[in-house]
Specification:
It comes from Blastocystis hominis. This is Acyl carrier protein. There is one protein chain. The chain has about 110 residues and is mostly helical. It has one domain: Non-ribosomal Peptide Synthetase Peptidyl Carrier Protein, Chain A (Orthogonal Bundle). It has 4 helices and no strands. Helix 2 packs across helix 4.
Length: about 110
């Protein structure tokens, strides 16, 4: 009896394979994601288009305050149809990495 209980408990403790979001290839190329993010940034009046690069930091390089940062992030999420997702990142490069791994990005 104890052998049966032990084997069933052991089966329950065996990890179940769950496919990670990061293992799914996104259909959007990283360079395309970066270009789209930079185009969104350049569309704002409070962003100097000359300062926007693939490695621009929102606060230190572009001079965005917290409200402008949120506005920019919301616009980027809307551009990729990710309004319900929280996308971490404080630079173009960080957001590019996050969005390019997200299979729901369009």
């Amino acid at each position: 009896m104890s052998a049966i209980v032990f084997s069933s408990v052991r089966l329950l403790r065996t990890p179940i394979f769950i496919r990670s979001v990061t293992n799914i290839k996104s259909c959007i190329d990283r360079s395309e994601v970066s270009d789209r993010i930079m185009n969104v940034l350049k569309g704002f009046d409070f962003v100097d288009p000359c300062k926007v690069t693939p490695v621009s930091h929102f606060a230190s390089d572009l001079g965005l305050d917290s409200i402008e940062n949120k506005t920019v992030k919301d616009a980027i999420k809307a551009d990729f149809c990710l309004e319900e997702w929280d996308i971490p990142g404080t630079s173009v490069d960080e957001m590019t990495a996050c969005i390019s791994r997200n299979p729901r990005a369009k």
